[in-house]
Automatic annotation (TrEMBL):
Keyword presence, Ion transport: no
A UniProt-annotated Pfam family: Adenine_glyco
Keyword list, A-Z: Glycosidase, Hydrolase
Molecular function GO labels: DNA-3-methyladenine glycosylase activity
The protein's name: DNA-3-methyladenine glycosylase I
Length: 198
């Protein structure tokens, strides 16, 4: 076991970022990297990854209930219909990240998500960029922040009208959805998604 993995009181090994904070630990143990294949689930994570850009994931996770309330539980059909009054409401909502560009991108992406249904939908589109193999990092330094697939996904989504979908953000999305497994070797969560064997 490396210094980047910390055994918890329960005997389970977790990375440093998930080892002390109860909210992050619960997210790591139960959600991060588990397969998400429904449109709303993928749209929510795409949206939250965009809002996370430049901020800590803990900040976004703590605000997730407020984000869900503000964005109609990330129903793409509802968010696609948001207008100026909704933008003003969101900019006044202290429970979320009040960034005009990110709010506008979420509405733009909702419209793009609805449009993508004609070609199979957002979830299948994003999952079509699953690589042939997944990283096997032993240390935090070995965890990649981009990949050829996340770069290709970024370009493909931009062509479809999506915003705030850079290669780093898309790699984080792929990790969160279980498309790649970047759990450290030795973590109790390694290979638990059912997508990758080890």
């Amino acid at each position: 076991m490396t210094d980047d993995l910390v055994p918890g009181e329960d005997g389970l090994a977790r990375p440093l970022w998930a080892s002390t904070d109860p909210m992050l630990r619960d997210y790591y143990d139960t959600e991060w990297g588990m397969p998400v294949r429904d449109e709303r689930g993928v749209f929510e994570r795409l949206s939250l990854e965009a809002f996370q850009s430049g901020l800590s994931w803990r900040t976004i996770l703590a605000k997730r209930p407020a984000f869900r309330a503000a964005f109609a539980d990330f129903d793409p059909d509802v968010v696609a219909g948001f207008g100026d009054e909704d933008v003003a409401r969101l900019l006044g909502d202290a429970g979320i990240v009040r960034n005009r560009a990110k709010i506008a991108a979420t509405i733009t992406n909702a419209n793009a998500t609805v449009a993508l249904r004609a070609d199979g939908g957002l979830a299948d589109f994003v999952w079509s960029f699953r690589p042939a193999d997944t990283p096997r990092p032993r240390t935090a330094a070995e965890v990649p922040t981009t990949s050829p697939e996340s770069t290709a996904l970024s370009k493909a989504l931009r062509k479809r009208g999506f915003a705030f979908v850079g290669p780093t953000t898309m790699h984080a999305l792929m990790e969160a959805l279980g498309i790649v497994d970047t759990h450290l070797l030795g973590s109790h969560r390694r290979a638990t998604s059912g997508i990758w064997p080890d």
